[in-house]
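FIELD: query
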Amino acid sequence: MSDFHELIKSFCKTREYVRDFFVYGFKTRNEFKEKSPRTYDNERRRLECWLSPYVRKDHTADGSNISLAIDSNLLDTNPLFQVWKTRSFTDNDIVLHFLILDLLQSHTAMTADAITDSLLTEYSVLFDPQTVRRKCNAYAKEGLLDKRREGKRIIFSLDNSLALWIQSSEMVLDALSFYQMAGNFGIIGNMLTDQFDHHNQTFRVKHSFFVHSLEDEILYALLDAMNQRKSVELEIKGSRQKTAGKAVCVPLQIFVSTRSGRRFLCGYVHRNGRFTCYRLDAIRRVTPMDESGRYDELFEKLLQNRRHLWGVSFQGESGHHLDRLTMTIQILEPAENYILNRLKKEGRGGVVTKIAENTYQYEIQVFDCNEMLPWIRTFTGRILSLECTSPSVVNRFYRDLQTMYHLYL
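FIELD: result
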């Protein structure tokens, strides 16, 4: 039986539930079919504990459902940062956390054995030396402590230089306030400003994609693998998949949508010999593997292929390496020169040619012309002809027009 606890051990499961409520939302209890009703209740109660000011409950004929209503331009921070601050801990974890840090405030540097002895003499608490050593090593790995070797001894110390520098500069705190709103890993800026009891009174972001902060743990693991030029194994589970799959690739670059803020990993899959993009919100776990000996070669190849990339797809439906799309549109000059400017500005390298009075032709070669359809539809009413080496693209465009036409009959 699943019991309710506000704190969590695994962030992966909670990330999925927060995304379900925030992105998809408006689901009743019975519509969460992959989990038991009790599990749903526990996750819902956690969400209400963390984000109660933003939880909206609606009552329908099928039951009540909850969603998150967040207006980013009114907020001074990302409410979803609260989800990162709910990790569970044991009694020893919390005691050692404060006592070790307090002890090292008044001592320059100490070994794990010396720390254990001082905990007993100064705080009257007894811990096993191995427990203290593991905690110190964990904190050194996280960057909370400095760790160095002096002869045969391992010395731990507390580095306060960053904290003192931040405290001494109001401009640094303002920079952190801006960073928590605008950058990847904004949780870092948020935690630092919280530590110094500084509140963002200056910056607001009109269009902010708060939900993508849930993927920062995955993003960090991918960037770390890129820095070390390693291949990775990805555990992937999309919103429509019932089971998680796995993929092995060489991570090369992160793509970010300027329209939705959605982030993608672009990697090279040796198994099929091509580049593939994976949505970060579908990646559940990243496992680093061996170093790739072809990293520089693959990265240069990606830069060349990006010239023919419209969105994030490297493979169309026709089976060709590249598909060619030609669109002829009518532009009444000079009153509609702004349409011509749109073609040149938004056409992503396509060639615009005047073929007759008030008639222009736009031509481009890309991997997947299906990704162009939302943009092409914005010229509806001006398109004289549309041709593509992938017939399915043209068929889909005219089929959608027919569907729209019947909606207005």
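FIELD: remark
The CA atoms of residues 17 and 43 lie 7 Å apart.
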